[in-house]
Amino acid sequence: MAWIKKLGQKLHAYGVLVMFQHTIFSFSFGIVSLLLASNGQFHWRKILLLVIGLLAARTGANAINRVIDADIDQANPRTAVRQIPQGKMSKKEALWFAIACFIVTVIVAGLLGPVTLALSPIALFFMVFYSYTKRFTALCHLVLGFTCAMAPAGAWIAITNSFSWTAFFLSGANMLWVAGFDIIYGSQDVAFDRSHGIHSIPAAVGVRNGLLIARFFHVITFGCLVLAGIVTPQFGWIYFVGLVVIGSLLIVEHKVVRPDHLAHAEIASYNVNEIVSLVFLVAGVLDVFL
């Protein structure tokens, strides 16, 4: 039927707008965190709500980013092909889509309990605030990482109404991992950023130093993942085998990009890390269940 086809096309358009496949970057950490926090006593209602909340939050954050950065995206030849600059979707439509996602996020937070509801405005603030940080600070990558790291932290709090070392190390890993590969991604735009007053670590310290900082962030990321495995009773050999794979992928990620050769920057920052996310998700879930 025609309306089904039209609906499918619209959903696809929204998926492209928010780069839906990148939801896995926070989703994997959030899911593993909530399963660990449940400690074998699965609260299926909370788990379902958290899945919906994580998807809605990440999707809304990406959509609002596209709205806020529309003018920058249009000026940058690399991003001018995105939907809003191309006129394939209006800023107003993308804004309403983001608002709808944020409303779902708040509703889910309320259904999860008073603590998560009280914390939801902080989460929403950072989901919007991040997009503005590149206009005044090179630390925008860390703000993005912090925003993503609210997924495992929020999942843990939603289940236990408390915090823990496991949640701390998972959140730290999530934050520095995202910040690191965002630096790699941002290395493609150094010339544009400098000429248009856009702030980033590569633009501030140069591509070579930026990539070294990204590498340092990922070393700390791996350390946080190891510490999470040590302090978490549910983690066993499957998790640590997964860490070996993740460590190897992070090495590959930094091998394929060089200051004088950034042709594979997008593959390194996105494609490789999508695999990292899946490995972490599978290894973490298997260790919880087995």
Structure description:
The chain has 290 residues and is an all-alpha fold. Helix 2 runs antiparallel to helix 3 and helix 3 (44-68) runs antiparallel to helix 8 (140-160). It has helices spanning 2-17, 24-38, 44-68, 70-75, 83-86, 91-112, 114-133, 140-160, 165-186, 190-196, 201-205, 207-231, 237-255, 265-289.
Describe the protein's topology.
Elements: H1 2-17, H2 24-38, H3 44-68, H4 70-75, H5 83-86, H6 91-112, H7 114-133, H8 140-160, H9 165-186, H10 190-196, H11 201-205, H12 207-231, H13 237-255, H14 265-289
Helix pairs in contact: 2-3, 2-8, 2-9, 2-14, 3-6, 3-7, 3-8, 6-7, 7-8, 8-9, 9-12, 9-14, 12-13, 13-14
Q: Helical percent range?
A: over 70%
Tell me the span between the first and last alpha carbons.
45 Å
Alpha-beta content class: mainly alpha
Question: Overall 3D geometry?
Answer: globular
How many strand units? Answer: 0
Low-confidence stretches: none
Pattern of helices and strands: HHHHHHHHHHHHHH
